[in-house]
């Protein structure tokens, strides 16, 4: 038993040595070695240096990972493909066992230095070490890239916004005389292709138009290809979470105009709506994109709503103040008001009663003493009439103020209606514009 294992191992290694041909004898090895033996990856692979190397580009947008409006960055995942012809990497396939295509390490051959101009962050992409070369020297290199690119993001029409971000490819060093760019597929096909795009995200790919242009600079002319990633937001979640609740809150606030004007319940009601609105805004502040450049229209509307709420609340407070003056002068008590009204009235009523006793008591005393003169009675009567007259003037002023406030209330109600109408019309037109694309 002890000698059995070494015997088996020796036998097995013998069999292996016989069965597997040495890699050096394989046609693939032979071909690869022959191709790379005299190859210099430092040299642009053309026989006549006046000829430019044309790099054919292709792009598939796979997913939109993040749209950061605050930092104006777009994170996308793309599949990128480049194809060029290497004149030194071709062979006669009938001389090499009909091998038409082999893979070679990317590090061993010349590769174009094409970058994306809008890169702002190191995009994570797997290091793919190999490229495919076919027998006529055509090299295919494809890789997935996570691109973090700078893009001017517009939030004005949020949540019905459409973003247009460009990805510009060009050679960082080579001028158009050395490295030229071209499209691998037709531009129309690239524009319409959404097959690779993941459909279930917040963003929807609309189209991918592209342009070829030559960038002229002091360092020379550079070929560049620009792809425009046009995406639009799916607004449903924002309509449900943001727009409809805000419209409901405003409708409730609008309903408060149907409460009697001279009632303090209205203040309590408006205050609760204001608190509700504030809580709503604090909760939703993370949902609304923030950017220093442009404020979303919906944010402007929220602020206007808040301003209206505060305005109508202060108006109600003013109104209650004047109504209070009116009550002090002994007019009817508003029906729907809070109990607190009467409590607040207590001390004032007492004061009035005191004043009445003060003005009446001398006359009373005089009656008792039965020694008063007509002159004194006259003075007393005059003081009473003076008091009543000033009271009348105060009442008159109060009434004027009240009618002003009533008119203001009606104006405010109409402005509410106009604003709500504008809000809804704007949202609808934004939605129509959004769906038109
Ligand atoms: C290189 O190509 C140009 C035209 O494209 C031609 O005029 C020139 O003779 C060629 N040079 C060589 C060494 O073949
Ligand atoms: C490839 O090699 C075969 C056989 O050696 C030969 O007949 C053929 O002409 C060659 N083709 C080219 C394009 O050189
Ligand atoms: C190599 O690939 C290119 C581009 O795909 C193609 O045009 C060419 O015919 C291929 N060559 C061979 C020998 O298959
Ligand atoms: C996107 O922007 C480019 C210019 O940066 C413009 O030419 C193109 O028309 C825009 N596309 C859309 C759909 O707005
Ligand atoms: C996304 O939807 C389009 C059509 O709306 C479809 O052609 C495409 O295959 C879908 N993409 C994925 C990844 O499902």
From TrEMBL:
Compartment list: Postsynaptic cell membrane
Entry keyword Signal: yes
Domain Neurotransmitter-gated ion-channel ligand-binding: 30-235
UniProt membrane topology term: Multi-pass membrane protein
Keywords: Cell membrane, Disulfide bond, Glycoprotein, Ion channel, Ion transport, Ligand-gated ion channel, Membrane, Postsynaptic cell membrane, Receptor, Signal, Synapse, Transmembrane, Transmembrane helix, Transport
SUPFAM superfamilies for this protein: Neurotransmitter-gated ion-channel transmembrane pore, Nicotinic receptor ligand binding domain-like
Leader sequence segment: 1-17
InterPro entries reported for this sequence: 5HT3_rcpt (IPR008132), 5HT3_rcpt_B (IPR008134), LGIC_TM_5-HT3 (IPR049944), Neur_chan_lig-bd (IPR006202), Neur_chan_lig-bd_sf (IPR036734), Neur_channel (IPR006201), Neuro-gated_channel_TM_sf (IPR036719), Neuro_actylchol_rec (IPR038050)
Catalytic activity field: K(+)(in) = K(+)(out); Na(+)(in) = Na(+)(out); Ca(2+)(in) = Ca(2+)(out)
Protein name listed in UniProt: 5-hydroxytryptamine receptor 3B
Membrane-spanning intervals of the chain: 236-255, 267-284, 296-320, 411-434
Role noted for this protein: Forms serotonin (5-hydroxytryptamine/5-HT3)-activated cation-selective channel complexes, which when activated cause fast, depolarizing responses in neurons.
Keyword Transmembrane helix: yes
Domain Neurotransmitter-gated ion-channel transmembrane: 242-329
Main location class: membrane
């Amino acid at each position: 038993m002890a000698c059995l294992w070494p015997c088996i191992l020796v036998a097995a290694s013998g069999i292996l040595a016989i069965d597997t041909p040495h890699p050096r004898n394989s046609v693939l090895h032979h071909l690869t070695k022959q191709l790379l033996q005299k190859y210099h990856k430092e040299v642009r692979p053309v026989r006549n240096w006046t000829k430019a190397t044309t790099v054919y580009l292709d792009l598939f947008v796979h997913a939109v990972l993040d749209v950061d409006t605050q930092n104006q960055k777009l994170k996308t995942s793309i599949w990128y493909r480049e194809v060029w012809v290497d004149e030194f990497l071709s062979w006669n396939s009938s001389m090499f066992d009909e091998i038409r295509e082999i893979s070679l390490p990317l590090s061993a051959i010349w590769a174009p230095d094409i970058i994306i101009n809008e890169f702002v962050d190191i995009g994570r992409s797997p290091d793919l070490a190999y490229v495919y070369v076919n027998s006529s020297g055509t090299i295919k290199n494809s890789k997935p890239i996570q691109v973090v690119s700078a893009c001017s993001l517009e939030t004005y029409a949020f949540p019905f916004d459409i973003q247009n971000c460009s990805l510009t490819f060009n050679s960082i060093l080579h001028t158009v005389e050395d490295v030229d760019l071209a499209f691998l597929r037709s531009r129309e096909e690239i524009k319409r292709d959404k097959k690779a795009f993941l459909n279930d995200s917040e963003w929807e790919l609309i189209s991918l138009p592209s342009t070829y242009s030559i960038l002229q600079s002091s360092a020379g002319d550079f070929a560049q290809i620009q792809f425009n990633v046009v995406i639009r937001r799916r607004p449903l979640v924002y309509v449900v979470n943001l727009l409809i609740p805000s419209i409901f809150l405003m409708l409730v606030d609008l309903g408060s105009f149907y409460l009697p004007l001279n009632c303090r319940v209205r203040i309590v009601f408006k205050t609760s709506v204001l608190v509700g609105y504030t809580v709503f805004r604090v909760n939703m502040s993370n949902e609304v994109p923030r950017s220093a450049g442009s404020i979303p229209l919906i944010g402007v509307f929220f602020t206007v709503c808040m301003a209206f709420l505060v305005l109508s609340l202060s108006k109600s407070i003013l109104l209650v103040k004047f109504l209070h003056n009116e009550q002090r002068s002994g007019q009817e008590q508003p029906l729907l008001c809070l109990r607190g009204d009467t409590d607040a009235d207590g001390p004032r009523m007492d004061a009035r009663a005191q004043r009445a006793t003060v003005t009446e008591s001398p006359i009373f005393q005089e009656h008792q003493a039965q020694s008063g003169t007509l002159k004194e009675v006259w003075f007393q009567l005059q003081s009473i009439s003076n008091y009543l007259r000033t009271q009348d003037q105060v009442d008159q002023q109060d009434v004027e103020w009240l009618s002003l406030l009533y008119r203001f209330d009606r104006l405010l109600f109409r402005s509410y209606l106009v604003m709500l109408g504008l809000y809804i019309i704007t949202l609808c037109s934004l939605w129509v514009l959004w769906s038109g694309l």
